[in-house]
Fold each of these.
Amino acid sequence: MDIQKIREDFPILSRQVYGKPLVYLDNGATTQKPRCVVDAMVDEYYSVNANVHRGVHFLSQQATELHEASRETVRRFIHARSTDEIIFTRGTTESINLLAFCFGEAFLREGDEVILSVMEHHSNLVPWQLLAARRGIGLRVIPMDDRGELLQEEYHRLFTPRTRLVCLAHVSNVLGTVNPVREMIAFAHGQGVPVLVDGAQSVPHLPVDVQALDADFYVFSGHKVYGPTGVGVLYGKEEWLDRLPPYQGGGEMIQSVTFEKTTFNELPFKFEAGTPDYVGTTALARALDYVSAIGMEQIAAYEQQLTAYATERLQAIPGLRILGEASRKGSVISFLVGDIHPFDMGTLLDRLGIAVRTGHHCAQPLMQRLGIEGTVRASFALYNTCAEVDVLAEGIERVRKMF
Ligand code: PLP
């Protein structure tokens, strides 16, 4: 991989903040966009724009073709069986809320249980809590060890005859743990229970094959994989999606409507009420084409090298403690230095041009498990370099010495 050449595709990476070159290490929150993604949006607005699926006219048909071709690009990217299994949403959060509502309506009754892990992002916890409050279901939590690995025997013990669903992050946004989702799915299936995988932090960094994983539902956000904001994906096996009721009502999701009765559209449109973000889906497809052209295996290998280098550099800093030491980790490093508050560390690093995340990272129950308020998080993407890791390490040293 020619990283310098790749960096040229991302105009924002050459800007300065506070007179310093930007070192952008907040990729877990959102990634920067290559020129081809922004160009795709501009091109579509300037030369194709029309509402999809509705018009007989030329532009509408062209916009529809682009939108549906994007669905095929997503299908190929995660290796789904059919485009009927690809639902466009606003992002991971909306995908999970959709599922919590629809799966809850169809399959959850008072006293039923949902299993989730201690390291879930609030997006994969709060929708289930809302559902729990509405329908009287129980939530059971998979614990982890101090290295940040989920305890598999405890997981197995959580299953009861009332377990209806397992919800699980593929990669933790705080600890970087890559959970053994394939094995955990196989176990759940052995108990007759489907699994939702939150792929927000995996799709940008690892090759994902939903059929090889045998995931029943898999969700991710476009903006974390170099695509635009406001577009995401819910993958669901057709056999499940077919059995779920619609989410929102409106145009597009219907087949016929009278005042007495409405029949619903087929998959995937049943779940896509209203005008979709068709420009966003085109741009998401460009982003997936972009990373596919580099190769997800290559990206994963490069980020692994970079994270290993960063781990080594950071570990050498006196008083620095890394949170999350699982045997398989993604490109995320959460850390604390002595008793320096993460917010102070983040603010001072920012003044050096280094963008990191600080706080609870939308995972407050995980912070409670770790007995801390928050961490500083550096999260890497395909355009980050060892030189940037050096700037980070030197920056942390500088802040440490100030305290
Ligand atoms: N799940 C995980 C693991 C995340 O890291 C995030 C975002 O940080 C989300 C869900 C929510 O994603 P979004 O805000 O794009 O819906």
Amino acid sequence: MPVDRSSLSRRLLLAGAGAGLFSGASAQTPPRSGLSGIAARHGVLFGAAIEPDTVDSDPAFAALLARECASLTAENHMKWNMLRPGPGRFEFEGADRVVAIARRQGAMVHGHCLVWHEANPAWLVRELTTGNAQALLEGHIGAVAGRYAGLIRSWDVVNEAIERNDRRPDGLRKSLWLNVLGPDYIPLAFEAAHRADPGARLLLSDYGLEYDDEPWMVEKRETLLELLAGWKRSGAPIHALGIQGHLIGHRPASFGPALRKFLRDVSSLGLGIDITELDVNDQNLHGSAAHRDRIVAQHYRAFLQVALSEPAVRAVTTWGLSDRYTSKSSMSARSDGTGVRPLPFDQSLQPKQAWFAMADAFAQRQHPEKTRN
Ligand code: G3I
């Protein structure tokens, strides 16, 4: 599927022109300050996931994003169900807008996600067979990662590949791709992404790795380490692990020595580590907004203090930036009907205690020794 990059570059040029980026003047990106400025001084790339409509329709939010974020993630627009309206068809409009917003704001882009067991169009689920799966997988990744080659810092190539409840000896999830291609779908996906964009940092990302006192998470870490070691031995171009970081406000913030050791073990495989979807679910927290904000901030601080103690952790992305726009409003609504408060900025785009907790965690990071990851 030839990639028509001319339309993409024209869109990017048009988008950039609006901000004087390509109007002949030197590139004018907002002065870097906020969380990304603090994080950058301590070796961390800070960003947030976005939906392009919320940026294009809300200038105040767009300005906040430009000030706070040095990286933007497509929350949904680079998933199969948004990109692929039908067999052999691509719809890049939303994904192009995310890339254009990032270029306008002088931010990098994290692509999410080339392969996942969710957010797949019905036609794919219906038509996928052992006979066409490899061509469909490689064709999709080649077209999507190829279209944005050189414009994207990193990709979640395979997302949430592990599910121990599926009872496979290797701990892999019985996803639609595994069912037709077997475990090889994972190295296949990474090799296709590396061919399409040799300069991109390629991640395997997953959730449920954060808490030391959660036995299934501890087991998942062990399973993941074994799989990563195998893929690295076989030469798969996996560059980093993406730890999603969807934290749970109503449970103990048990981020301790076992998490620290897990991060060290991942790093010793020669892998980098990105925190890719950080937020704190306050759905089941009781009390005033100020009380809930205090607990949410404690989770951000406690998790980041451990995560940032590992030099291989090089990027932190929150799953949204403000409570004004978070999918938790629908996915984790509170029973008391009050708004959820999982992110560093409130609905009025004011910094919350979580913002200061994150700023402290970045600022208190010991300067990481140079790492190859
Ligand atoms: O865009 C359509 C809209 O046109 C339609 O009217 C509306 C109602 O059906 O749906 C809209 O699409 C929704 C999309 O979010 C954009 O809002 C999908 O139905 C909905 O399923 C989708 O949910 C996303 C979910 O992943 C599934 O893709 C969430 O926003 C997103 O935050 C969530 O993010 C995931 C990561 O990708 C992977 N890790 C877990 C994380 C949280 O679940």
